[in-house]
Every structure is written in structure tokens, then in C-alpha cells.
Write a structure and sequence with these properties.
Elements (H helix, E strand, L loop, with lengths): L6 E7 L4 H15 L7 E7 L14 H9 L3 H16 L16 H12 L3 H13 L8 H11 L3 H9 L4 H15 L7 E4 L3 E4 L4 H14 L4
Parallel strand pairs: 1-2
Antiparallel strand pairs: 1-3, 3-4
Length: 222
């Protein structure tokens, strides 16, 4: 159990998950008006929705999801259009027509490295924006190096995360995904508040705010 002077919020997400970015904005909105926000410690954790994904070579996100879910491309596009509308409600500009489908494991290794430098939130934001709005390939070495530089990581460190010669960052990614499953998660985003309460999905600002208040009441400052 985390110490009472901090309210720990662990967030499992995938860079490719549109609801994870939406959930991030909803949680941030709840946190902005939460009186105890200075006590909140956010810990981002890795989870891959499709760990076996291989770059499909020019396949659109609409075609990828249609194949994965057994639906038509038109149904997939309609689904993505609805998600785009939901994203717009929290100020996000989703451009699924630009999305480059690729495996997210390399991006997660960069996240693991960034977390050790106190840059977990910064790298999550940069990767989400790159994938959903800017149409960048989050599995590409040069793209990840540029994003690393953007948040203040040096090129040598970014290369270590990408190449991962000792397998350190890969193990951390895989261990965190296993941890989410052990908690009973069946998808992301997955929020665990102070190891007491879990919220699955982008449930909205009010839900996150109520849970923050509940956890704070139950864990007063010593």
C-alpha cells in the first residue's frame, strides 16, 4: 500500500488506444479541480492491446480494425468517426486518416526509460499526439528519437530503449502488462487508485473526481 502522504494513481494504457488518450484528458480535468491534487502521484504503466501486431505495410487503421474485429471497412470507419467525435469533446483532434499502424512495443520501451527520468507524463502525451493527430510512426526509430529529444531525453538513452540490448526495458513492459491482468483488467485505460479502487475505461471526469475524493477521505494525512 502506498504511503498516506501520497495518493498513488497507476494508469495502464497503450499508445494505440484512442480511449486511453480520451481517458487521460478526462482524468486531468478531474485532477485540475481536485483540492488534494498536490498529493496525487501518477504512475503510467504499459499495456499492449495487440502485442503480436506486425506492421501491415500501408494498411489503414480502418482496414486493420476491420480485419481484427471481423467487420467491414465501412463499419470500422463509422466506429472511428464516433471515437473522433468523443475525442473532440475533450479537446483532442483525432486524425485517423493519418494513423500509421505499427506495433507499440518500442514506444513502450521508450516510456519505461522516460519514467526513470521523471518524464512519464511528457512521453505519454508526446506519443499520443504523434500517433492520433500527427500521423507519425510510433514504431520507427527516427520518430521515437525525435520524440525523445522533444521531451528532453538524449539520443544515446533513446537508442538504448530502442535497441534494448539487455532486454531490461522489454521486461518492464511485459511485467507491467502482466500486472494489469493480475489486477483483473480486461482492457485499457485501466486506473488503479491507491491500490484500493479500479476504474476501467474512459469513464468521465465526474467518475474520476469522485474516486479521488473517496480515496482521499479514506487515507487522510498522518
Amino acid at each position: 500500500m502506498p504511503a498516506n502522504d501520497k495518493i498513488q494513481v497507476e494508469i495502464w494504457s497503450d499508445v494505440m488506444c484512442p480511449f486511453c488518450y480520451i481517458g487521460k484528458r478526462q482524468f486531468e480535468a478531474a485532477l485540475d479541480r481536485f483540492e488534494g491534487r498536490d498529493r496525487v502521484e501518477i504512475i503510467w504503466k504499459s499495456y499492449q492491446l495487440d502485442p503480436k501486431l506486425k506492421a501491415p505495410g500501408g494498411q489503414s487503421i480502418y482496414e486493420y480494425l476491420a480485419h481484427k474485429k471481423g467487420m467491414s471497412v465501412e463499419q470500422s470507419q463509422n466506429l472511428h468517426d464516433r471515437v473522433t467525435q468523443s475525442a473532440a469533446q475533450v479537446g483532442l483532434d483525432y486524425r485517423f486518416d493519418r494513423v500509421v499502424v505499427n506495433n507499440s512495443h518500442a514506444a513502450h520501451r521508450l516510456i519505461q526509460l522516460a519514467k526513470t527520468r521523471g518524464l512519464g507524463d511528457a512521453v505519454e502525451e508526446a506519443l499520443f499526439r504523434a500517433y492520433f493527430t500527427e500521423g507519425k510512426d510510433i514504431g520507427d526509430r527516427a520518430t521515437l528519437a525525435a520524440l525523445a529529444a522533444e521531451i528532453g531525453l538524449d539520443a544515446e538513452s533513446a537508442a538504448q530503449a530502442f535497441d534494448d540490448p539487455q532486454g531490461e526495458w522489454r521486461k518492464r513492459v511485459d511485467d507491467e502488462a502482466s500486472e494489469a491482468l493480475a489486477f483483473g483488467s480486461n482492457g485499457v485505460p485501466f486506473f488503479v487508485f491507491h491500490r484500493q479502487y479500479a476504474v476501467t475505461g474512459a469513464q468521465g471526469e465526474e467518475v474520476f473526481h469522485r474516486v479521488l475524493e473517496k480515496v482521499t477521505r479514506e487515507n487522510p494525512l498522518p
